[in-house]
Specification:
By secondary structure, the chain is an alpha/beta fold. It has helices spanning 4-18, 27-32, 64-75, 81-92, 125-130, 137-149, 176-185, 198-208, 219-231, 246-251, 263-268, 280-316, 320-332, and strands at 21-23, 37-41, 52-58, 100-106, 110-115, 118-123, 152-158, 161-169, 189-193, 212-214, 236-239, 254-258, 271-273. The protein is 48% helix and 21% strand.
Length: 333
């Protein structure tokens, strides 16, 4: 028993590492088979950090493609997720961007640039109000509708006149739905928690058929949710990738992060998915189940021959050689 258990654990850890999963503690394998609740952080875990362009709304005789060209051209030097989403949409449509002549970025509001002798504003409704640009009732209604769903709405103005807006939706990880479906089949309860508005969190939970969602929570409240679930007798696995997930990762029975996540998250997590694919969670659960069965088999193959040998000596007066053969026979077979 002293040899088989460590060897089985070591062999399983080696097998898991070949699948691109890093496990820092061998005890994780035993706990994983007991997990009945998995809590996902929303942004960066179930969704990608970069959103996608969902809809383009143009007005004042501006074509959709032209609106996107001006917006993407204005943002092409920026590195934030919204800028990358606009650039990706322009590239997907095969649009050629225009050169920027001058630019000024307002932190938290948006950007103002000079493009092809035109002044272009790209940003929030607050930027338009700050610059004295009137917003139509239609655009206000679209903006409110986006807010109710938790989507971002970027407004674009050209030469002091509102030209339209671009709706940005969170990009769900391609494998997210398949992972949730697999967990449901295993009767594992799923949660999604997020600091985002209720609309965004609820929409994602309904789309992925996640059992429960909690929105608009502070970072420190995530760990309180994990502790509450544990008090209810649940074995909790927390999956997160941000700095504000570190406390919850520490409190959970099992903590999982993704390669490329914040350093503090990968340092805290017991398991790191090196391929950054959530589907590895399903593989990990399957391997943990197999590991548990192997441990049971090891226990049986160790104890039963020993009991048979002792019983043979006392009941049937078997000799040394018979005892050796009887003990080794299960291992040989």
């Amino acid at each position: 028993m002293r040899i088989l258990s460590p060897l089985t654990t070591l062999n399983t850890l080696h097998f898991i590492s070949q699948k691109g999963i890093l496990i820092k503690e061998g005890s994780v394998l035993e706990k994983l088979s007991q997990v009945d609740t998995i809590v996902f952080d929303k942004t960066g875990t179930l969704t990608l950090k970069q959103p996608v362009v969902q809809n383009i709304y143009s007005c004042n005789r501006v074509m959709e493609d032209d609106l996107l060209i001006y917006a993407a051209s204005a943002e092409h030097r920026q590195t934030h997720p919204v800028a990358q989403a606009l650039l990706a949409a322009a590239e997907e449509r095969g649009l050629n961007l225009k050169e920027i002549e001058d630019s000024r970025y307002e932190v938290g509001y948006g950007i103002k640039v000079a493009i092809a002798s035109h002044l272009v504003w790209v940003g929030s409704e607050r930027l338009m109000q700050l610059e004295g640009i009137s917003i139509t009732k239609e655009m206000q209604e679209i903006s409110q509708h986006c807010d109710s769903k938790g989507y971002s709405f970027i407004m674009v103005a050209i030469d002091g006149e509102l030209s339209g807006g671009i709706e940005l939706a969170p990009a769900i990880r391609p494998e997210a739905q398949a992972v949730i479906n697999e967990l449901r089949q295993r009767q594992i309860m799923t949660y999604i928690i997020s600091g985002d508005q209720e609309g965004a969190t609820k929409t994602l939970a309904e789309e992925l058929r996640i059992d429960r969602y909690i929105s608009e929570i502070l970072p420190e409240a995530k760990s309180a949710i994990v502790e509450q679930l544990q008090k209810e007798g649940k074995t909790v696995c927390f999956v997160g990738d941000g700095i504000n997930d570190s406390i919850a990762l520490k409190k959970a029975d099992i903590s999982i992060s993704l390669h490329g996540a914040a350093t503090v998250a990968t340092d805290t997590a017991q398991v790191v998915l090196m391929d950054g694919n959530l589907m590895q969670i399903v593989s990990l659960l399957d391997i943990a189940k197999q590991f548990k069965q192997k441990e049971k088999n090891n226990l049986l193959t160790t104890i039963l021959p020993g009991v048979a040998c002792i019983g043979g000596v006392f009941l049937f007066h078997s000799g040394l050689y018979a005892s050796i053969i009887l003990y080794l026979n299960p291992a040989i077979s």
